[in-house]
Amino acid sequence: VRHFPGRIESANRAELAFRVGGTITILEAQEGALISRGQTLARLDQTDYKIALKDRQATWDKASKDFERGKDLVAEGSISRRDYDQVEASFKTADAALDQSKQNLDYTLILAPSAGQVAQRHVDAFEEVKPGQTIYYIIDRGSLEVQIDVPENIIFVMSDSDQQRKTAESVKAWAAFDVGADKRFPITFKEAATRADAQTQTFRVTFDLPRPE
Predict the structure, then answer these.
(1) Smallest Cα–Cα separation from 60: which of 107, 96, 102, 105?
(2) Angle, CA of 21, 90 and 49, to the nearest 5°
(3) pTM summary value
(4) What is the per-residue pLDDT across 154-168, written as a single tens digit (0 to 9) for each?
(5) How many CA atoms lie within 13 A of 118 on its CB side?
(6) Quick one: pLDDT at residue 163?
């Protein structure tokens, strides 16, 4: 029997960020708050994005009219095929720009991808943020994982799924906590890293732990 210090993590966790930059105007969820799927968690100032959308919409309207007019003119022989191709290309460019502008406006919102809990909030309201900057770290309160670091001299480095399956069937493991240390919770093998940590030279092994009541 071997004993290792372990870390408890949510099996499903995510870092949430805006895909565009701006100033945060709304932060709906505080740390520790329970959230539901689709709930609005944060919003950026949308003023500039709405202005950009109006400009792209106006450009699209003009390009669309020119394109429809060009269809008739090229059919009549009033313009060359080359001129028509240019009009069509301008319309497609305007159409793509309009779609991008609509997406950018949608990206000013962060919605909860699933029900769970806010584990950590990294920013404050009215703070300027960059695209990809982490705003929330959320976890699923359902299933848990136990992670341990195993020295390389005893690790079984598994290179394929068949070896992992065999290991999962043979390894019997359990977890105990400082509170109620006499109680053991069965855990099942999930995966093992096949590359050692550069600093500790240990391999991370992960087990599934059904959430205790």
Answers:
(1) 96
(2) 20
(3) 0.73
(4) 776 555 556 656 766
(5) 24
(6) 67
